[in-house]
Design brief:
By secondary structure, the chain is an all-alpha fold. The protein has helices at residues 8-13, 16-23, 27-53, 62-90, 92-96, 99-120, 137-159.
Length: 163
């Protein structure tokens, strides 16, 4: 709980759902399990595309793989965001000052920027390098950054309990 009961974070922690998340034996763990399932699905679909961009499974067209993984990524986000918010409101004061949480949120922002730049940039020309041609260096850089960022996000998520 927050030391200053008048702070906005303390008000968030007093929300009935936040109180229930803290006091019900099974609610927080169930929400966390769904968050992890969503995260595994999201990161798994992204890593598969990243590995293809980095040169694995060259026979598989990038556009086909991207089209296949995108619905999984979107579905996973629809699970991750609400469950993450539920976990946040439960311990808002603890999370907001936790270096692992701050780093995780910063890395998520970086991942979103990297994906947006990739899709707005080099991916627009995917027809020219979809299969049978070397992946452009720029796409490989985005894939490597993505891979490293998501490893960092996963590590920070796990470290939340220990930092």
């Amino acid at each position: 709980m927050i030391a200053d009961p008048a702070s906005p974070l303390a008000a968030i922690e007093r929300l009935p759902l936040a109180v229930a998340m803290r006091h019900d034996l099974w609610l927080y763990p169930i929400v966390e399990i769904f968050h992890i399932i969503g995260f595994v699905t999201l990161v798994g679909s992204i890593i598969v595309l990243d590995l293809r961009l980095l040169g694995l499974s060259k026979a598989l067209p990038v556009s086909v793989l991207a089209r296949h993984t995108l619905p999984w990524s979107i579905g996973a986000l629809l699970l991750i965001v609400p469950t993450g918010l539920l976990m946040f409101i439960t311990h808002a004061g603890d999370f907001i000052s936790n270096p692992a949480f701050i780093t995780k949120m910063s890395l998520l922002f970086c991942a979103a920027i990297n994906a947006a730049v990739f899709h707005a940039g080099v991916f627009r020309g995917v027809a020219g390098w979809d299969s049978g041609v070397a992946t452009p260096g720029t796409a490989k850089i985005h894939a490597l950054l993505s891979f490293l960022i998501w490893i960092g996000v996963l590590a920070c998520g796990r470290l939340l309990a220990y930092v």
